[in-house]
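Why does residue order matter? Because the sequence determines the fold. Keep that principle in mind as you read this record.
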Amino acid sequence: MPTRSMMYGGSPSPTTFRNNGREYLEYFINVAGLRPTDCVVDIGSGDGRKAVALTRYLTTGTYLGLDPVKVGIEWCAKTITPRFPHFKFKHIDVFNGQYNPGGSIRPCDTRLPVADAEADFVIVTSVFTHMLPNDVDHYLSEIARILSRDGCTFTSWFLLTPAAAHRVAHGTAASSAPRFGTSNGTFAVENPAVPEQAIAYEESWVTARCREHGLIPRVDRGWWSGAAETTGYQDHVILSRAAQ
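Structure:
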C-alpha cells in the first residue's frame, strides 16, 4: 500500500484504498464479466488501488497500467511488479490540467501502447470525468482499436440527464458531488479555470459517441446525482463491441 501522501483519486486513507479496490473488483467480475485469464488494460491506473485488488484474481491473465502521474506508476512498478511479474506499468506523459499540467503529449494525440484487438478488458475509471470532449472522443477510438472482438470496457462518468441536471441545479445531489455549472449541450464543468478538475457529460452525447466508434453502451446509474437503485458513486457505462 502506498503512503498516504502518495494516494490520489479519492480520500487518501488505507481504508479507502482497500475498499475502493475491492468494490471495483466486484463490479469488474459481477457486472462486466472479468475473467482471471483476461488481458487487462487499465487506463488511468493511478496509485494502484485497482491493480492491488486485481492481483488476487487475475491469475493467468495480464495487466498493463497506464497513467500520466509518474509517481504512481513508479510506486506500482517498484512494489507490485516484482511480486506479480504479469502486472506491468507504463508512464505516459499526457497533459491533464488537473493531474499532469506539465504533460508533453496532447490527449487527442495519444496512441495507447497496446496492439490492435489485444485487450480483453479495458478499465477507464475516473478518467473521462477529467477529460474534454475532443480527447474523450479520441480515447473512445483508441479503446475501439485495442479491444478484442469479445472484449469489454468498464468506464465511469458523471452523466447528465434531465433528472440529474435538475438535482445538481437544486442542490439535491450527493453532498460530495461536484457542483457543475450549466451544460452547453455536451458537457458542464465545476471549475472553468481548470475544466479537467471535474467534468460531466450529457448522457445522450456519450452514448452517441460510443456507438459511432462501434461500441455498444450499457448504463448503470451512480448515486452522485441523487439517483436511487445505483451501483456506485459515479455512473458506469459498460462497453462491448457492436456485432460485425
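The mean pLDDT is 93.
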